[in-house]
């Protein structure tokens, strides 16, 4: 999958702005004291390679995920991104308004009632990663409100809304692709 430059540049600007503002959406940390969400997958461990099936050459869609630690949330969001030193930042998937009682995401699935925002590539839905040397982050956010954005909301609007409502965060990272 080729990455169009204009959306990639826009996503990078958004990522830098959000990271600098302290939300930590795409960055490594946040100055706010956020509660911690535990994120795992039955298909790979934190720091292990992303199974080939969930890449652009695999065809399985998104990997299954599980999380805990979202009590008190009004909704949950998921952002899948990478920060490849060679190709730059990219957002591969944004899902928001997930029911706060949901604790897992099935393979190639979006929870009922949840919405998907646009990715770096300009379309809503899981955009499987292709770069074998990427650092793919599956970050789950507990939010203090439903975002109530439209399906296919812009990447900038979605990330800004997630950043403004985050009360807890957890991340599962895949280093490279099998």
TrEMBL record:
PROSITE patterns: PROKAR_LIPOPROTEIN (PS51257). Coiled coil: none annotated. It holds the Pfam family PBP. InterPro entries: PEBP (IPR008914), PEBP-like_sf (IPR036610), YbhB_YbcL/LppC-like (IPR005247). NCBIfam families: YbhB/YbcL family Raf kinase inhibitor-like protein (TIGR00481). Belongs to the UPF0098 family. PANTHER family: PEBP (PHOSPHATIDYLETHANOLAMINE-BINDING PROTEIN) FAMILY PROTEIN, UNCHARACTERIZED PROTEIN YBCL-RELATED. This is YbhB/YbcL family Raf kinase inhibitor-like protein. It comes from Microbispora oryzae.
């Amino acid at each position: 999958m080729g990455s169009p430059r204009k959306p990639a540049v826009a996503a990078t600007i958004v990522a830098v702005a959000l990271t600098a503002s302290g939300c930590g959406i795409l960055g490594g940390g946040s100055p706010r004291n956020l509660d911690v969400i535990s994120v795992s997958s039955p298909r790979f461990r934190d720091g292990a390679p992303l199974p080939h099936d969930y890449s652009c050459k695999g065809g399985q869609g998104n990997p299954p995920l599980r999380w805990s630690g979202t009590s008190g949330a009004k909704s949950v969001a998921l952002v899948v991104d990478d920060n490849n030193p060679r190709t730059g930042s990219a957002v591969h998937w944004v899902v928001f308004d997930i029911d706060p009682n949901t604790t897992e995401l099935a393979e190639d699935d979006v929870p009922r009632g949840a919405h998907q925002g646009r990715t770096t590539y300009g379309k809503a839905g899981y955009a499987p990663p292709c770069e074998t040397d990427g650092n793919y982050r599956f970050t789950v956010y507990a939010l203090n409100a439903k975002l109530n954005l439209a399906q296919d909301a812009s990447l900038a609007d979605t990330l800004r809304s997630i950043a403004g409502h985050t009360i807890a965060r957890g991340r599962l990272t895949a280093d490279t692709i099998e």
